[in-house]
Amino acid sequence: MCYKQPINQVTTWINVLTSTNVPIKSVALLINNSPVQNLFIEQFNLLNIKTYQLIKKADPDLFINQILNSDCNILLVDKSSYPLLRQLIPSYAQHDIFIILIQEPWMPDWTWTFTQCHFLCQSDLPSMIA
């Protein structure tokens, strides 16, 4: 895999998120690819935006509680973290949250059942130069 593509996608996602009218309070990274996760952390740190990331050997319930007890309003999720996302979404019933499915080219059908959430996927990204 070319290293330039993940860098371009991370940069593009950051640009899309910061160009919206939604204030980014903090971001949870449900991403199991360490290099991609680290790119997001680095970029958000430059913008002084707090990030939460799952530590592989830690209890996922602690991570969920940490996110729910924070002001986190953005979740960036890869496919391997969908089971954790499914645990987390019901707790956000009263929250306005954006969930970015970073590996999905199109919006999966299951997203339509969670009306309290705003989902984005790769089709929401502007065209990227390879």
How would you describe this protein?
With 130 residues, the chain is α/β, with parallel strands linked by helices. It has 4 helices and 5 strands, in the order H-E-H-E-H-E-H-E-E. The chain has helices at 4-19, 34-46, 60-68, 82-88; strands at 26-30, 50-53, 74-77, 97-101, 117-120. It has a 5-stranded parallel beta sheet, sandwiched between helices. Helix 4 (82-88) links the parallel strand 3 (74-77) and strand 4 (97-101). The two termini are 12 Å apart.
Topology:
Blueprint: H1 4-19, E1 26-30, H2 34-46, E2 50-53, H3 60-68, E3 74-77, H4 82-88, E4 97-101, E5 117-120
Helix pairs in contact: 1-2
Number of discrete helical segments: 4
Biggest beta sheet attributes:
5 strands, parallel
**For the residues shown, what is the average pLDDT?**
85
Secondary-structure element order, as H and E? Answer: HEHEHEHEE
Number of strands: 5
Shape: globular
Distance between the termini: 12 Å
- What percent of residues are in strands? 15-25%
- Radius of gyration from the alpha-carbon trace, in angstroms: 14 Å
Low-confidence segments, ≥5 residues, pLDDT <50? none
Q: Fraction of residues in helices? A: 25-40%
Sheet with the most strands: spatial strand order: 2-1-3-4-5
Structural class: alpha/beta
